[in-house]
Specification:
17 strands; Cyclophilin; five-stranded antiparallel β-sheet; 293 residues; alpha+beta; nine-stranded antiparallel β-sheet
Amino acid sequence: MIRTALVAAAILAMAAPAAAAPAKGKAAPAPAAPPAAPGDPKASDWRIPNPEDVLVIDTSKGRIFVEMIPDVAPTHVARIREVARSGVYDGRKFFRVIDQFMAQTGDPVDNGTGGTDKPDLTQEFLFRRGPQTPMVLAADQAVSQVGFLKSLPIMSQSAMLMAMTADGKISAWPLYCPGVAGMARGEAENSANSQFFFMRQAYPSLEKRYTAWGRVIAGLEAVRAIKVGEPPADPQDTMDKVRVLADIPAAERPSVRVIDPNSAWFKAEIESVRAAKGADFTACAIRIPSEVK
């Protein structure tokens, strides 16, 4: 059947009218060149994240910087800050690490069964996005939109629906791309406490089911180097020290900057990735450069 169909197609092609071919002496127009990937960012392309919203994690595999995004999960970010400042995260093991998935930590008893004495958190799987939400659009899919809120990739309902809602806002949610930080929980949706995980790869099935509260902006290679296992073989990798950037003494505080999603560099990066990926475009493929000194 396949061979017959190919023969029929060839006969139809030979029978096509000559007018379908380009006119003699006229070259077919060359396809438009895809947008080039942007070069190095300029000084104006960077932004300085709020030091209250940056978590500095010294691990056995290297230092990790996480930008916390209170816009999407304010109570979870507040909890992470609180636990970090209490010292509970210092020395915690990565007790569940799955390749091509995630690395989990933050349990005071280091086995996935514990938490702090603080009450469990109400889930923040979704957040409300209004006209003032600083989202930079990467793709408009008519019924939904994909973009970035600071370093975090997000998806939301179409902005056109804002005029139809009581609060003038629409539902939005983070995308679980590599480096995204999510809150671990039990069977109950409102059971997150102190445990969290870092994505080693993209995993869309977690979206709208687990609260995402930030993203690794430097040190993803350290996350991917953490020893794999459930639990990993001893000695397990650990978070040796966890601090909020604002709490580090000025003399030893690292200088951190990350690409501004409103910048010309980032907009060129979006167009370059869209042209390269076509129908396979995903926000996870868009780079988020950072510099730490």
